[in-house]
């Protein structure tokens, strides 16, 4: 797949998407959580999904990760329509999700968490036991390959910083064959420095040819690593643009509800009986 990416990039074309949504909609009873969602996730690219609370971000990734089913539109993997029944179906297609509340066991060593649920063993029953040496070696190799350097793989994973734990989870997904990596607000609970750590590994995953779906409500984080930006508002796509077609300022404006703020400013001006132009220029409307 890596050669495909290079070939297509050299030809100036975008690689074919691994995951594509066409006009996807989702209803929870009478609540319409999503409508008309178009999304493409390509190898070696980061697709950012932005939006305020309740915009539908989690619903969208629950569909792609196999937790929920879509009610409308098409969900394609490698160009074939799919209907996933559970997260195992998604994993089998190479779609892995790293959730905000990481599924790690804090008191277990880093290497143990890396192989949690997929432990390597050696020997045959009744003398079958964990292949600790091999698990440690592979964990070390895989973390190094992602540029992650930990002093001691025997330390409990709970002693790592939030950013480091996210990084281990990303390296783990890569090792277990993910082609698409979904990250649900990985930087939401982190400070500036730790966020930087996670953004670095998002970039590393992209360099290794993965398609990344990066959910965030921080336009600055999105713009640092994103190739494509999809902004959700009330369950619909408000903006769907490639990096070349949107500036950080425009993205920030969409996230801040630029149009809504402009309308509010207009109303305020009327209430106060002043000219809109006399109000301080705190809101800039998107130029495009
Ligand atoms: N399981 C559910 N049942 C009913 N409504 C839901 C459910 N999950 C989400 N919703 C509704 O769907 C909308 C989108 O929610 P969500 O996808 O969680 O948004 P976000 O992740 O962007 O905050 C909200 O109005 C929310 O209340
Ligand atoms: Mg959410």
Automatic annotation (TrEMBL):
Pfam families tied to this protein: ABC_tran
SMART domains xrefs: AAA
Keywords assigned: ATP-binding, Nucleotide-binding
GO MF term list: ATP binding; ATP hydrolysis activity
Keyword Calcium among UniProt keywords: no
InterPro entries in alphabetical order: AAA+_ATPase (IPR003593), ABC_carbohydrate_import_ATPase (IPR050107), ABC_transporter-like_ATP-bd (IPR003439), P-loop_NTPase (IPR027417)
Record domain ABC transporter: where: 19-259
Superkingdom as given in the UniProt entry: Bacteria
The keyword tRNA-binding belongs to this UniProt entry's keyword annotation: no
Name the record gives this protein: Sugar ABC transporter ATP-binding protein
Species of origin: Streptomyces bingchenggensis (strain BCW-1)
């Amino acid at each position: 797949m890596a050669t495909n990416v290079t070939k297509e990039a050299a030809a100036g074309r975008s690689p074919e998407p691994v995951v594509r949504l066409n006009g996807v909609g989702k209803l929870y009873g009478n609540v319409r959580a999503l409508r008309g969602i178009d999304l493409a996730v390509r190898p070696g690219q980061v697709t950012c999904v932005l939006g305020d609370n309740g915009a539908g971000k989690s619903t969208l990734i629950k569909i792609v990760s196999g937790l929920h089913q879509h009610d409308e539109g098409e969900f394609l993997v490698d160009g074939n329509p799919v209907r996933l029944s559970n997260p195992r179906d998604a994993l089998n297609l190479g779609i892995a999700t790293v959730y905000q509340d990481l599924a790690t066991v804090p008191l277990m060593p880093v290497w143990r968490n890396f192989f949690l649920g997929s432990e390597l063993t050696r020997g045959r029953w009744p003398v079958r036991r964990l292949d600790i040496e091999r698990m440690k070696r592979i964990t070390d190799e895989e973390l190094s390959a992602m540029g992650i350097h930990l002093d001691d793989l025997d330390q409990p994973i709970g002693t790592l910083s939030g950013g480091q734990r996210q990084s281990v989870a990303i390296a783990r997904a890569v090792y277990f064959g993910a082609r698409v990596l979904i990250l649900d607000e990985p930087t939401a609970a982190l400070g500036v420095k730790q966020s930087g750590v996670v953004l670095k590994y998002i970039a590393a995953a992209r360099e290794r040819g993965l398609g990344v779906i990066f959910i965030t409500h921080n336009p600055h984080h999105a713009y640092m690593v994103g190739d494509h930006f999809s902004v959700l508002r009330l369950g619909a796509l408000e903006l769907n643009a490639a990096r070349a077609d949107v500036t950080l300022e425009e993205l920030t404006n969409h996230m801040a509800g630029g149009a809504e703020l402009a309308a509010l400013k207009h109303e305020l001006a009327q209430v106060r009986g002043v000219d809109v132009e006399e109000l301080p220029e705190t809101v800039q409307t998107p130029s495009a």
